[in-house]
Design brief:
The complex is a heterodimer.
Chain A (H helix, E strand, L loop, with lengths): L1 H24 L13 H28 L2 H33 L7 H22 L3 H31 L16 H43 L2
Chain B lengths: L1 H20 L1 H17 L7 H23 L2 H8 L3 H7 L4 H30 L7 H26 L5 H12 L1 H15 L7 H25 L3
Helix pairs in contact in B: 1-6, 2-3, 2-6, 3-6, 3-8, 3-9, 6-7, 7-8, 7-9, 7-10, 9-10
The chains are: A mainly alpha, B mainly alpha.
Chain lengths: 225, 224
């Protein structure tokens, strides 16, 4: 418990520093102005979500091959945390896009990929709630997780090909290619803070899942004649 | 060799079961027909409009129909308690998947071919001149749908709310197939038709990737 409080404090300080840097250290963007600062939360959240989904994939593979429950706990924890970050991306994106592009949403490759990614992992979590028996649930959701993760590059490729054949509806701004060094630094600082937050959340969620498994096992022991 | 002979024997069993009742095929065909007719109310079904919407509409209808058609694939084995018998009968459990997905590809292809003339008439889209190429697109697309759908129907068979769950699991995973098949079909149904090898290649890659995944991980789904 003490360790979690300490880790939480560290993550909080990191996030506070990153937030401060995003508002006061990073220079204001010339054309977009203040709204561009949402980028420091938006882009690193997307990268963090991908890291979390990769951890989920590792958990799924680990479970299929070793059948140890702790891999399943990693899978579900990472999927939930990744989904939370993915949601942050999908919410902050339109907030930025509306004043800059003039529209809330564009069917651009990256946006579409994020939306499909979100749907894939929502289905993963939904599947878990609908299978009763713990071993069965762990196994089938692990296999689905593997299918979903392998699908991600294919989804991305198909959407890219499909969209690049049409003219882009709007000019895409905020690429890291033309990023000011200070902006880049702030972005990576924010990413570090979010990765720490992700690790903390996965850790807490993992412990919860472990406790849940203990309670389940005890309950079955009591209920069995 | 044993894999091939086992699969062919099981495929025979799948086809025999279906052609005895023809329940699955009839229901799916009527379902797609209903969808195609209902779609015409959502936009102006003139020739130019249907050229723009037609291919996407067709593939959406196929996908929805497949998500219903693949439902009983493993459920039937479960309710009749025949899955363990199947597992004992074959040397490699992948043969069960191979047989089921070949049967499903065949069923899907058959429904698509039966509905294509009706679609062409209703939406005034000439299909005859590009028919062989269209068949290739339909085959690669349906194969992708069947590979993923068969695997996921083995997953959803264990869950509650499985009728709703299968489309939910299947449709997002099949996004690449929907895009690639729609684009390839659209290029063929264009007034100046062209065969898009890039999309066909993409579909082939999709099929190969998921067939390999199924080969590697499918057996875990058949554990009792």
């Amino acid at each position: 418990m003490k360790r979690i409080v300490f880790a939480g404090l560290v993550v909080f300080l990191l996030l506070a520093a990153a937030g401060y840097a995003a508002f006061y250290v990073a220079p204001t963007e010339r054309t977009m102005g203040l709204i561009q600062r949402i980028f420091y939360l938006h882009a690193p959240s997307g990268m963090t979500a991908l890291v979390a989904f990769f951890l989920c994939f590792l958990g799924n593979l680990g479970y299929v091959f070793s059948r140890k429950d702790r891999w399943d706990w990693l899978g579900v924890s990472a999927a939930e945390v990744g989904l939370a970050f993915c949601t942050v991306v999908l919410v902050t994106g339109p907030i930025w896009a509306h004043p800059v592009w003039g529209i809330w949403w564009a069917w651009d490759p990256r946006l579409t990929l994020t939306a499909v990614l979100w749907l894939l992992y929502v289905s993963y979590l939904l599947l878990r709630t609908l299978v009763e028996e713990p071993q069965r649930r762990a196994l089938v959701s692990a296999v689905f997780g593997i299918f979903a993760f392998i699908d991600v590059p294919l989804v991305y490729m198909s959407i890219r090909w499909w969209r690049t054949q049409h003219p882009q509806p709007v000019v895409f701004g905020g690429q890291s290619s033309g990023l000011d060094p200070k902006m880049r630094m702030v972005m990576f600082l924010f990413w570090g803070a979010l990765l720490a937050l992700m690790a903390l959340l996965i850790w807490v969620r993992y412990r919860l899942e472990a406790l849940r498994a203990d309670v389940d096992a005890l309950r079955r022991e009591v209920e069995s004649p | 060799m044993s894999l091939a002979s086992d699969s062919i024997a099981l495929l025979g069993k799948e086809l025999h079961t279906e052609f005895c009742s023809r329940e699955l095929l009839t229901t799916t065909i009527v379902f797609i027909l209903v969808v195609i007719v209902l779609f015409s109310f959502t936009f102006d079904p003139t020739s130019t409009e249907s050229h723009r919407f037609g291919p996407g509409l067709l593939w959406l209808a196929f996908l929805f129909a497949a998500s219903l058609m693949l439902q009983p694939c493993f459920l039937r084995e479960q309710t009749n308690d025949t899955l363990s018998a199947l597992r004992l009968a074959v040397r490699d459990p992948f043969a069960i998947f191979l047989a089921k997905l070949s049967a499903n590809t065949l069923f899907l292809l058959l429904t698509e071919l039966l509905l294509l003339p009706i679609f062409a008439v209703l939406y005034d889209i000439p299909v005859l001149r590009v028919f062989p190429s269209l068949l290739l697109v339909f085959f690669l697309g349906s194969l992708g749908v069947s590979i993923v759908g068969t695997a996921l129907s083995a997953i959803s068979a264990h869950a509650r709310m499985r009728e709703l769950l299968l489309p939910l699991l299947m449709l997002p995973v099949l996004t690449p197939v929907l895009i690639a098949s729609t684009e390839a079909t659209a290029a063929l149904l264009d007034p100046h038709p062209s065969l898009r090898w890039d999309w066909l290649g993409f579909l082939a890659v999709f099929d190969a990737v998921f067939l390999t995944t199924l080969w590697l991980f499918g057996e875990y789904l058949l554990e009792e």
